[in-house]
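> @MW can you paste both from yesterday?
MW: sure, first one:
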Amino acid sequence: MSPIQAMTESSRRGPYDELYTPAGAVSHLVPHLPRGRVIWESAPGTGSLSDALRSHGFKVVAAQQDYFTWEPQEWDIQVTNPPFSKKAQWLQRANDLGKPWAILLPVTSLGSRACQVQLVGADILFLPKRIDFTGRRAPWFAVAWYTRDLRLPQQINFVDPRRVE
């Protein structure tokens, strides 16, 4: 794919691509992120995920750039909530970059062959409840943090709902 095709492709948005990440979704991932590393938030949107990571003391690079043609000069780990319509392509690019990542995706991504291919060997952190992305108190789908090279305790991990406020 040429850079112009990639830019055109990455600028198209699906109907659920503008759902922003509340801090509650980030708090479950924070214990698994190594300290002292630079995090690239590759789909910053309004900046809520970046702000949440910064509030936990992480250095975050976030820029509204075309993910498929750009990357920051300095970064160690990618943490993001990408446009859902581009989840398989996002995973492929994340893998191609060859650095650790944590990507928030719908649990149903496990049923997508295109995502399955990119998730071979990944670890998953299932959240204790559905995340309210809209603020309407009616979350309609479950998400999980899919990770690579973050050394989660097991390949499949669950946040214990009995220990969540």
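MW: second:
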Amino acid sequence: MKTKILISVLAIVAIAGCTVPGVPGLTTGPTVGAPKGLEITSFIAEPTPVYSRSTVRVVMETENQGGATSYNGTSFAYLTGSNINLTTKNGNYWYGRDPEDEVQCKYFNTTMKPADEVRGTPGDIKTFKWDLIAPNVTEGQTRSDSFIGRIYTDYETSVNGNIWVYSETEADASKANNKPLNKATFTSTSGPVAVEVSANPDPVIVYGSDKAFSLIIKISNNAQGTIYQPNVLSDCDISLTSEQLNQVNVTIDAPDFSGQGSCEGAQELISGRPTSLFCELTVNGNVATFQSYPISVRVKYGYYTQQTASVLVQGR
């Protein structure tokens, strides 16, 4: 089972992203400051410049910037870039100096704890390193190569709350006595994908046999990475089809309501843009007075973020 990360926060800010040229499905947006999950905090390749056939160390530093522990699983760091072939040592490519440097994927294989605000300790940090040999470059010439570092992880973002339902009699009585009607309340977890839930009308007022209302679920890319279908990557195979990009899976737990099936299952964020799901729910049973009903919305998805670093190679 892939690592799943659940990051706690009290509020979610939803933002729309813009497409990055040349990277299908990759969207970016401003950083909102909320914790997100496993993040690349530094990605460097040094020294630069270097002579051909010299060693360069590529270092990726990562940190759990979320609010919950990331447990052992198959979340991994991935190295790619221009002119890289880590196992071909013919001098035409960047290649790994030692066997541990000849793999593109390096797995976390460790529990990553979040920051402890009470104790003032930061989230767990893990560093990945690759020692690479520079390719041959003709004497007197130079070339610039780029390295790309990524983190691939499966996440779950959820919203839990209560929806208030009033009988017509109770609603009228509260209004007559100038008492405000209770409205739905939700607490959210945050991840790279933001989820917002609301009810319309709020509160729900049952008029006779009409016990229906709309549940609205807004899903948006809240960070600077790419969404993909959960539970599809394994064994360092990062191949993603266009049908797997920008896909999430929605589950609704609402035992006192019916009709949520239309919003569940696989859902697509077209071109990575925010999407809203509208489903008509019906209150089960009779409503004789006002009361609150629990509801939970869980959104599962895969996500990767990346950073780049460049090295100038001089021939000799």
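> thanks! Helices lie at 168-176.
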